[in-house]
Specification:
By secondary structure, this protein is of the alpha/beta class. It has one domain: Rossmann fold (3-Layer(aba) Sandwich). About 40% of the residues are buried. The chain binds adenosine-5'-triphosphate and magnesium ion. Adenosine-5'-triphosphate (ATP) binds next to strand 1 and helix 1.
Amino acid sequence: MAEPLLRVQSLRLDIADHERSRSILLDVNFDVRPNEVMGLVGESGSGKTLTALTIMRLLPPAASVSEGRIELGGRDLLRLTESEMRQVRGSKVAMIFQNPRAALNPLMRAGDQVARALLLHRELSRAEARRQAVELLRHAGISDAESRARAYPHQLSGGMAQRVLIAMMLACRPDLLIADEPTTGLDVTIQAQIFELIKKLQAETGASLLLITHDLGVVSEVCQRVAVMYAGQIMEQAPVAELFHHPSHPYTERLLGSILRVDQAAELDPSRAIAFASIDYDNPGCRFANRCPYVLEACWVRRPVPRRLAEDHIVYCHLRNEGAS
Ligand SMILES: Nc1ncnc2c1ncn2[C@@H]1O[C@H](COP(=O)(O)OP(=O)(O)OP(=O)(O)O)[C@@H](O)[C@H]1O
Ligand SMILES: [Mg+2]
């Protein structure tokens, strides 16, 4: 099996909140292989965006990594200097954000933003960068790219703005793309088009994609493998078909149940389709324990060790470890 492109190991991220510090991410482990679409799924507040921002090293000031490694192509990103990291961002790993309009510069024309991304990574004349920028916009599915290149972000629809961001990413030719809920707020047909575009470009460029979403429907259409995250911990990881047919963690079962049973509610607001009990960051065991229908004594005491159920299928659950150790 090919060496992973990205390997996140034992990642722990602490956030200072008033007087206390909480480990918002704890013992996060997953990898992304070359030329693979890997999903990271979990409900709102589970730590998906913070995981992505930690990989990009674009963390809010209150946050700090206290444990772990993030290897990209064998290099630990957490140990790079800021200027080395700037080289990595864009050229090796690039991210599309939850809100495309906010990620664009409101004062700069769309085409110029793509051209600037090109100039950052390649030796080109300005005129050539502009020409290639229009080409990239066209490649990102923008019809009439010539005139759209002259538009400012507020003149673009949400779907168009996301296409501009995708064109900017293409300009950088990264090995790894991270797309964080890239279609939030877009209507369903546009969402489908954007996913099609992302899949097509991923296949064309051979880049790997880490796709962050709360929507298992999206995962089933776009991803090969998926990691399920809850309250900053990975609960389960598996190839997509395996996860859908043999979910092993009670939280995964619940996520799957929520798309099957309450699909109408999920359409209104999928991230909130599951009833909420507050997230229990203080439990030294499994953070899902206070919502788990099958909770055991051990779940309050220690984090379950990972159990391999099948090729590439790993679960962190005491239920599955009973009698195993
Ligand atoms: N700057 C911050 N300061 C303090 N807490 C934060 C900060 N950013 C995020 N958090 C907390 O960390 C947890 C994880 O947040 P994160 O944004 O990673 O979740 P998410 O899985 O991306 O959720 P969503 O699906 O809503 O985007 C949340 O409880 C959130 O309140
Ligand atoms: Mg998020």
